[in-house]
Amino acid sequence: MSGQGEKGQGQRHKAVIIIGGGFGGIAMACQLKRKLGCTDFCLLERQSGIGGTWRINTYPGIACDIPSPFYSLSFSQKPDWSTFFAPGKEICQYLEKVVDDFELKDKPHLDSEVCSCKWNPKTKLWEVTTRELLPGLGDLSSAERQQILETKGPSSVYLNETIWTCTLLVSAVGGLVEPAPWPANVAGKDKFQGKVIHSARWDSNADFRGKNVVVVGTGCSAAQLVPRLLESDYGASRVTQLMREPPWVVPRVTPPLGDNFYERWSPLLCSYVPTYMRAFRALVALVTELDFQLFGASRSSKRKRDNLEQKLLQHMGETVPSKYHEILTPKYSIGCKRRIYDTTWFPCLHDSRIELTTLAMESVDENSVTLRPGPKTHPTEKNLETRSVPADIIVLANGFAVSRWFHPLEVVGSKGTTLQEEFDERGGPQLYRGTALDGFPNMFFLFGPNSFTGHSSVVLGLENQVHHAIKLMRPVLAGEAETVEVKRPAVIKYNEEVQSDLKRMVWNGGGCSNWYVAPGVAIPCHTRK
């Protein structure tokens, strides 16, 4: 751990503190050094390593569903991606190499849980309180750590507490951090004698061979991991997959000239012909971003959605068993929820060992799960009787807790109010360009509300936010200004424009519920807004 800038025992000072060691934190660290020549900063990371989402998610089959050349930092391209859609481990290795290339290995402070960030109006500094975790405990979910804390006491979780001060504070806390909890309406978890595993905290020691597995969810993670459970490496005896609503499933695109050409020749071309690498990335970015035409309310957008939906329904009909055709037909517009880019989930539904159902999980016993018709059950299954299915392992692929931004981080601004209180008072999460808020001087947010749609590369919007923040940090770090803060009228005006625009988008009128939209406020926005 770097001890530069210490101000006495248990207190340290940095010009800039970055919270989070994933894509956002690493991008900000690189640009602080590249653009501003600033080296007096650190990254506070709760996990035991850098990489964020791509380090902590290790479930079978995890991979990016955005083409690799576009899902990478523009100023630090990787020429030799192994596939067009990189596996999670390779993305994590890429981020580690970026840190090495920019000589930032001394910047991350790992196993550091940020408890609170408070603005001190007298010193014009942020005071950041952290607790050092025992190695490895930062990789657990907040609920798992809390359970250890309650049963074994603070010494089983924490080593010491440190108060940092900094001139500028950056939150690079991602939204896909905390696993969604066990469904509150499902009783009997304590009775269950098998393993309960969340896809976001995979247990690599779990033995699936010959086991009866119940998978809760049919989102992106579930679509990647379920086929793997049926392969010889895992060898599950039976998989029962529970679905609330069918996703729109898009056949995964192939690179120009095919996968074999890309995997064999693209690393060589990108390594030795830099112009080719830049041009290829630009082409991939253009094609990916053109998808945004699907999400508007114009006649043209609706026509494009209708045409694409017909093609995808035809693909589904040709790919999955006929018994699943009705329950896999979405009743909402494409784009309202995040799409699944699939090459293996639909085909695996032909395997006799898997059952897909819209029956709801009612309760859990020692070695079984009770299913019954519920509010989301498809009409074709409404008349089915309540039944039990054997279960040795339950896999929760039910997503992440994304309803509260930056939770459980407590951020107190210049008015003495918390970030969450400000959001509540304003009617929902909102930031200026997803990056700043009045009352929180010298603080910048990455991955903030109204920043990303989930339908394209998050890295594009992320780099735009970093670029915006860097320009505003420059005068403060140069000593030309003491503080920088967006004005409240600008925040209000910007949010009104965003909300007006988003009322006409598919996320609000597409006929589904989704995690893009908070009660009374729309979350996503075009990354170029």
List keywords for this structure.
eight-stranded mixed β-sheet; N,N-dimethylaniline monooxygenase activity; FAD; FAD/NAD-bd_sf; FAD/NAD(P)-binding domain; disordered N terminus; globular
Summarize this entry quickly.
With 529 residues, the protein is of the alpha/beta class.
Please tell me about this protein's structure.
It is a single chain. With 529 residues, the chain is of the alpha/beta class. The protein folds into 3 domains: 11-178 and 401-497, 3-Layer(bba) Sandwich (FAD/NAD(P)-binding domain); 189-247 and 296-396, FAD/NAD(P)-binding domain; 259-291, no CATH class. Helix content is 29%, strand content 19%. It is built from 13 helices and 20 strands. The chain has helices spanning 23-36, 53-56, 88-101, 142-152, 220-229, 259-272, 274-289, 299-319, 345-348, 419-426, 458-477, 488-502, 506-509; strands at 11-19, 41-44, 108-109, 112-120, 125-133, 158-171, 195-198, 212-216, 238-242, 249-251, 340-342, 354-357, 360-364, 368-372, 387-390, 393-396, 410-412, 443-445, 517-518, 521-522. Strands 1, 2, 3, 4, 5, 6, 17 and 18 form an 8-stranded mixed β-sheet that branches. Helix 5 links the parallel strand 8 and strand 9 (238-242). The longest helix is centred in the middle third of the chain and has 21 residues, at 299-319. The protein is globular. Belongs to the FAD-binding monooxygenase family. GO terms for molecular function: flavin adenine dinucleotide binding; N,N-dimethylaniline monooxygenase activity; NADP binding. InterPro entries: FAD-bind_Monooxygenase_sf, FAD/NAD-bd_sf, Flavin_mOase-like. Keywords: FAD, Flavoprotein, Oxidoreductase.
